[in-house]
Write a structure and sequence with these properties.
Blueprint: E1 3-9, E2 22-26, E3 37-38, H1 49-52, H2 55-64, E4 69-74, E5 77-79, H3 96-103, E6 108-111, E7 114-115, H4 121-128, H5 131-144, H6 149-156, E8 160-161, E9 167-170, H7 171-189, H8 204-209, H9 213-219, E10 224-227, E11 229-231, H10 237-250
Parallel strand pairs: 1-2, 1-4, 2-3, 6-10
Antiparallel strand pairs: 4-9, 5-11, 6-9, 7-8
Helix pairs in contact: 2-7, 4-10, 5-7, 6-9
């Protein structure tokens, strides 16, 4: 089967060579990077990259690519083989044969769940971002996607979730998820004026989308397998933990604006 894993990047960076299945996709408004596909070709939402983040590449892949298997990863965050051990190297990146084997047993390949330990996913979002994004998403799911409401309500009270906007699935599954995801986010976008948000908070739809994959998987009774994710440049978990505790204790520092 044909496999394309789209590696989202905004700058030139080393890409996995595994089996030729990794397709670098340039997002943002920088000069063209040689050898990269661009998210401003074909049907696209390239101009929304500032608020949709890596999802502009997902939209592009949904609308313009026809591979049997599609996936979305990041230039600094990659799926690695479940047999990988020790310090990361590019030889450990998940390859075609393992992907094919996993997708004969499961519908979707996802990252291992991230555990926030001291707070629910809803509270973590509220302690990290402006409230209006989550409250608007609540209203949209409840009113316009009511079949998803039970799973959504349950998931937001959990402390673990499949984050990072990373997945690999057979093409129709990837496309079905994308169709639903962008319909949901489009309705949220129509309700919120983000023009006065900080540059970081304008990334709202990239943040919100991390809460939705599990809701879609559960509601549609899809099976998944968790695969390790390597942070190519490392990850300071201690620093992240301190930031999370600080936000929980003192709240989100940016003025709460609607």
């Amino acid at each position: 089967m044909s496999i394309e894993i789209y590696v989202v990047a905004h700058k030139s960076y080393r890409m996995p060579a595994n089996d030729g299945i990794y397709i670098p996709v340039q997002v943002g408004f920088n000069d063209t990077i040689s050898g990269f596909k661009r998210d401003d070709t074909g049907e696209n939402i390239h101009d929304k990259n500032g608020s949709y983040c890596e999802l502009t590449a997902q939209y592009w892949a949904w609308k313009n690519r026809t591979a049997d298997v599609k996936g979305l990863v990041h230039y600094r965050r990659l799926f690695v083989s479940r047999q990988a051990h020790g310090r990361f190297n590019y030889d450990q990146v998940l390859g075609a044969s393992e992907i094919e084997t996993l997708l004969t047993k499961y519908d979707v390949i996802v990252p291992k769940k991230r555990n926030y330990y001291i707070e629910t996913l809803a509270n973590h979002y509220k302690h990290s971002h402006l409230d209006i994004g989550l409250t608007t998403l609540d209203d949209i799911i409840k009113a316009d996607f009511s079949t998803y409401w039970p799973a959504y309500k349950h998931h937001l009270q959990e402390k673990k979730g499949h984050m990072f906007n990373m997945l690999i699935a057979k093409g129709p599954v990837f496309d079905d998820y994308s169709k639903w995801l962008f319909e949901v986010l489009g309705k949220v976008e129509a309700k919120i004026d983000i023009s006065h948000f900080s540059k970081s908070e304008q990334r709202i739809y990239g943040y919100l989308s991390e809460l939705l994959l599990d809701v879609w998987l559960e509601t549609n009774h899809l099976t998944y397998v968790e695969v390790p994710v390597a942070f190519v440049e490392g990850e300071n978990l201690f620093k992240k933990g301190l930031v999370m505790i600080k936000r929980k204790l003192v709240g989100f520092s940016e003025e709460k604006r609607s």
